Amino acid sequence: MKTVGVILAGGNSTRFGEDKALYELRGKPMYEHIAEAMKESGTVKEIMVSTNRRLAGSFSYETVTDLPGFLDKGPLGGIYAAAKHRPGCRLMVVSCDTPYVPAGWLLKLHGVAQAYEETLILTEEAGQIHPLIGIYQGTDLAGALRTQLETDRLSMRAFFENRQTATLDATAHGVHGDALVNINRRMDIL
């Protein structure tokens, strides 16, 4: 099964004050840090950015935007657009606001996902699930996402109720909090 890297960059960044994905962090846009980790992991055949229509022309990778009827549906809508665009592919999903995620961790997630092709493999750290650092895969992933979106229950947890899901403990594999920090405000930048 082909693995496609999907960087989620469709939010409005209201708490941050400007588009996080494009914010220059250590000399490059935040989303580029994710792309580099994906490439370095050696697991993805291609990378795409799932974003909103306003930002669609802002990235150096192929972009996919929310599909008609599913605009502004949050991460589920962004993952659905990617799954619809690349049917039958395994999606390595990482949100643009987690720029410190290590390539080695993505490689570890991918290795587990290969062994359990019908299971979503998500990151867990200190008892907290990071649903936007994970592998989304399985039979008719796009169809399952669409069905969930049609219920208007847009939480990631609601989607996990109807899908085989497993977590991988980052701490047990030497990956700690700072590597998985989610940057919502400028004060979150390390």
Question: What is shown here, in short?
Answer:
27% of the residues lie in helices and 25% in strands. By secondary structure, the chain is of the alpha/beta class.
Care to describe what's here?
- This protein is of the alpha/beta class and 190 residues long.
- It is 27% helix and 25% strand.
- It contains five helices and nine strands; from the N terminus they run βββαββαβαββααβ.
- Strands 5-4-1-6-8-7-9 form a seven-stranded mixed sheet, with helices on both faces. It has a two-stranded antiparallel ribbon with strand order 2-3.
- Helix 1 packs across helix 3 (103-115) and helix 2 (74-85) runs antiparallel to helix 4 (141-150).
- It is globular.
- The mean pLDDT is 91.
List descriptors:
alpha/beta; seven-stranded mixed beta sheet; globular
Give the number of helices. Answer: 5
Order of helices and strands: EEEHEEHEHEEHHE
Helix/strand class: alpha/beta
Residue share in β-strands: 15-25%
Major beta sheet summary = 7 strands, mixed
Helical content stands at: 25-40%
Return Rg in Å.
15 Å
How confident is the prediction overall: mean pLDDT? 91
Q: Order of strands across the biggest sheet?
A: 5-4-1-6-8-7-9
Separation of the first and last Cα atoms:
36 Å
The residue ranges in which pLDDT falls below 50 over 5 or more consecutive positions are none
Number of strands: 9
Q: What sort of overall outline do the alpha carbons produce when their principal axes are compared?
A: globular
